[in-house]
Amino acid sequence: MNKLIVALDVETVKEARELVARLREHAGMFKIGSQLFTAAGPDFVREIAGAGGRVFLDLKFHDIPHTVASAGREAVRLGVSIFNVHAAGGGEMMRRTVEAARETAAREGVTCPSVIAVTVLTSADPATLAETGLTNTPEAQVVQLARLAASCGMDGVVSSPHEVAPVRAAVAQKDFLLVTPGVRPLHAAHDDQKRVMTPGEAVRAGASYLVIGRAIINAPDPTRAAAEILAEMRQAEAAI
Ligand code: C5P
Questions:
Q1: Among protein residues, the one whose CA lies closest to atom 12 of ligand 1
Q2: Labelling 52: which of 19, 69, 92, 194 has CA 20 to 30 A away?
Q3: Which of 211, 214, 217, 218 to mutate to test the pocket of ligand 1 (most atoms within 8 A of CB)?
Q4: Where does ligand 1 bind, in terms of residues with CB under 6 Å?
Q5: Closest to 23 in 3D by CA, of 219, 236, 187, 180
Q6: How would CATH label the architecture of 4-239?
Q7: pLDDT tens for residues 71-106?
Q8: pLDDT band of 207, cuts 50, 70, 90
Q9: Where in the sequence numbering do the catalytic residues fall?
Q10: CA nearest neighbour of 26 among 199, 225, 227, 179
């Protein structure tokens, strides 16, 4: 299985289409987040999914349970492979969203996407948590939210690669998905990400998927950057 998810964090459909064409061979999935979705809307998601591409719809829903569950139904109808919500939205929000997604998929005869929960953003450090009133360390907060997500029937969580091992230790389900942004090849800039690892380290730590944006899409040669990262990931997988 290809564990590389490329974040299509670009301004226009034209740029996104070009990246998809160049990276199709190397990316296991394409992530459409708030920037591209706000610019291009659901049509572009349908376009990629309709052409057989796998899509992670990264809109990090966080609202009252009814609204998030309803948004989840629409994500199922779009044909995405993964969509996510903020675990901080609470247990009822997550339970109702998973139920709504599974019920919609069964009714419409389509495969249910994996529904995963964002724990603590990889750009956050202890000071970021403290300014919102959270006294937990990032790791303790991630583990607490991952336990809650698992108990609500969620399929996995998003966390930094540093929390993969603690989450694996805290959650019993072997197939619980651990999706990790905050991955940087050794010589790449860290940008605004604070809790980072290299692709090989993240795979060895037990990540199910790595989300990589700028280190690929802003590289002088994105195809080559993706190929090198994938080779590093496969080497690490082979050594597990
Ligand atoms: O460019 P970079 O590799 O940092 O991109 C990471 C992507 O993962 C961005 O699209 C960002 O929105 C997303 N993401 C994240 N941290 C999370 C969840 C998603 O960085 N906890």
A1: 33
A2: 69
A3: 211
A4: 7, 9, 33, 58, 118, 121-122, 158, 181, 191, 193, 211-215
A5: 219
A6: Alpha-Beta Barrel (3.20)
A7: 999 999 999 999 999 999 999 999 999 999 999 999
A8: very high
A9: 60
A10: 227
